[in-house]
């Protein structure tokens, strides 16, 4: 069973599918592949969305928003590069906030550490009281 979600095809495998030996053939990497061993920017100036350096950002649930914001920044000719891309970056940020497990926010870690400190300081007096009463 398979169905399309956006540009991706989701395929469900059955137990029987796994019991049958695979007929897949491994193909050697093509040294002429323009995306192989390239950096973030291709020789023609385009963005290499397949670059491992992007960490999959271009293909996640917010991939389109990421591509839009990153493209805008890359091609920006403003004096302050990217200053014309605020709306695209805001849309990307709003999308990422819907998927906190995939896109952890830096300020979340600060909140957790401050909550941990509060919990520790609340527990400390209770522990001291317990020792004093015995």
TrEMBL record:
GO BP, sorted A to Z: mitochondrial respiratory chain complex assembly; protein import into mitochondrial intermembrane space
Which ranges are annotated Basic and acidic residues under compositional bias? 125-134
Q: What is its main location?
A: mitochondrion
Which Gene Ontology terms of cellular component type are present? mitochondrial intermembrane space
Residues annotated as domain CHCH: 62-98
Q: For this UniProt record, give its keywords in alphabetical order, as a comma-separated list.
A: Disulfide bond, Mitochondrion, Oxidoreductase, Protein transport, Redox-active center, Translocation, Transport
- List the Gene Ontology MF annotations in alphabetical order: protein-disulfide reductase activity
Q: What is this protein called?
A: MIA40 protein
Q: Outline the segment boundaries, as ranges, of region: Disordered.
A: 100-134
Pfam entry (one) = CHCH
Task: Report the subcellular localization.
Answer: Mitochondrion intermembrane space
Q: Name the InterPro entries for this protein.
A: CHCH, CHCHD4
């Amino acid at each position: 069973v398979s169905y399309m979600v956006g540009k991706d095809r989701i395929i469900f495998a059955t137990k029987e599918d796994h019991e049958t030996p695979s007929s897949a053939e491994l193909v050697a990497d093509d040294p002429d592949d323009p995306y192989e061993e390239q950096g973030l920017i291709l020789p023609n100036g385009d963005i290499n969305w397949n670059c491992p350096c992007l960490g999959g950002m271009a293909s996640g649930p917010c991939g389109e928003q990421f591509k839009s914001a990153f493209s805008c920044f890359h091609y920006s000719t403003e004096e302050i590069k990217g200053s014309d891309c605020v709306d695209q970056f805001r849309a990307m940020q709003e999308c990422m906030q819907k998927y906190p497990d995939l896109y952890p926010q830096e300020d979340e870690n600060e909140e957790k550490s401050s909550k941990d400190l509060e919990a520790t300081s609340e527990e400390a007096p209770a522990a001291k009281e317990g020792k004093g009463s015995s």
